[in-house]
Write a structure and sequence with these properties.
The chain is an alpha+beta fold and about 350 residues long. It folds into 2 domains: about 90 residues; about 230 residues, BirA Bifunctional Protein, domain 2. About 40% of the residues lie in helices and about 20% in strands. It is built from 11 helices and 9 strands. The strands form 2 sheets. A 7-stranded mixed β-sheet has the order 1-4-5-9-8-7-6, with helices on both faces. Strands 2-3 form a two-stranded antiparallel ribbon. β6 and β7 form a beta hairpin. α1 runs antiparallel to α2 and α1 runs parallel beside α4. The longest helix has about 35 residues. The structure holds zinc ion. Zinc ion (ZN) binds next to loops. The site of zinc ion has 8 residues, from loops.
Length: about 350
């Protein structure tokens, strides 16, 4: 029995020493100490040992078990250390390498231009007001003197949520909401996102931004409109910028005009940028229609006002000399980081 135990121990020790992987250690554990292991088999044969010898043999078996268990634990520790060592060596970090550059973003060209426009008008005493993008038909059309049969209300041009609610097609409804509050005088701009059922191309997008402006006060004339907008474009495009007003029609202003600025590339001589015209169309404007004032509860005999609206993207494209509006929305890092 003693020889048998020594033999088991010797073989187990050799196998453990030779083991190179955790799985080999486990094999030894199962083969020797497991339920069907050699040492277990020895314990089972104790019944054949003479009763007076049993304590001594039992002790011997226990000693063998402890010795093998201890050896297994040592081997396991050795392997874990070796593995850690290997990992530390293979994952070594060279602290002398140059650091990765932190990529810091910046404001979108649209946001830059919007902030510039806001700064100019805030400097002239205007308030920046925002309104809902999902708007009532009433505010978007009716209160702005756009009748039910107007082509702008066509389902081809407007995203309707239902009969009475839609995605606003312009920022003008914000003017109505401000007028309705009845606090006069008003000096405001309303920038924001608007929606039209347009196909995407170089100059169109179903979602874009407008900046709407409005002044309501006593004794406001077209001269105030001209002076204000002239000052605005001089600050935006340069002190030499000239303006030109062309008669136009908008339902909510009377009279109405479109305003051109002299080309800031060629100074008005005509170039590729202004398509040889010397002038660039920039915004629509006019004196607030008396009907619009009345509908919002303002007496047109006492108060007058002017309003204007411009496309933010149009200004951004002009200022940065970008020739395709889609570039502003594609979020292409290579494009955006130029600005
Ligand atoms: Zn030009």
């Amino acid at each position: 029995m003693k020889d048998k135990l020594q033999e088991i121990t010797k073989r187990a020790m050799e196998q453990i020493d030779a083991a190179e992987e955790m799985s080999a250690l486990n094999d030894v554990r199962v083969a020797v100490l497991g339920k069907k292991g050699e040492l277990t088999a020895v314990l089972k044969s104790m019944k054949d040992v003479k009763p007076e010898d049993r304590p001594a043999v039992g002790q011997l078996v226990n000693e063998t078990r402890s010795a093998i268990e201890e050896k297994l634990a040592e081997a396991k520790e050795r392997m874990e250390e070796a593995e850690l060592d290997h990992r530390l060596k293979s994952e070594v970090i060279d602290v002398t390498l140059p650091a990765k550059k932190a990529k810091i973003g910046h404001l979108h060209p649209n946001t830059n231009v919007l902030q510039e426009v806001e700064d100019i008008f805030v400097g002239m005493g205007y308030e920046v007001v925002e309104g809902p993008e999902v708007e009532y038909d009433y505010y978007n059309f009716e209160a702005l003197n756009i009748p039910a049969n107007h082509p702008a209300k066509d389902e081809q041009d407007t995203f309707y949520i239902n009969k009475d609610i839609l995605l606003r097609t312009q920022t003008s409804p914000v003017q109505v909401r401000v007028m309705e509050k009845g606090k006069l005088p008003i000096r405001m701009i309303a920038p924001g996102r608007v929606f039209r059922s347009d196909e995407v191309d170089a100059t169109h997008s179903p979602s874009f931004h407008q900046i709407e402006g409005m002044v309501i006060d006593k004794n406001i004339t077209f001269a105030d409109l001209k002076g204000t907008l002239q000052e605005f474009v001089k600050q935006l495009f340069g002190a030499d910028t000239k303006v030109k007003f062309r008669p136009h029609h908008f339902p909510f202003t009377e009279p109405s005009a479109e305003m051109d600025v002299s080309c800031f590339k060629c100074g008005g001589k005509g170039c590729r940028f202004c398509k040889g015209e010397g002038w660039i169309e920039i915004l629509g404007c006019g004196m607030v229609h008396p009907k619009v004032l009345k509908m919002s509860g303002i007496d047109p005999n006492e108060y007058q006002g002017f309003a204007f609206g411009l496309g933010l993207e149009r200004i951004t494209l002009l200022k940065y000399e970008i020739d395709d509006m889609r570039l502003l929305y594609e979020n292409d890092d290579r494009f955006l980081k130029q600005f």
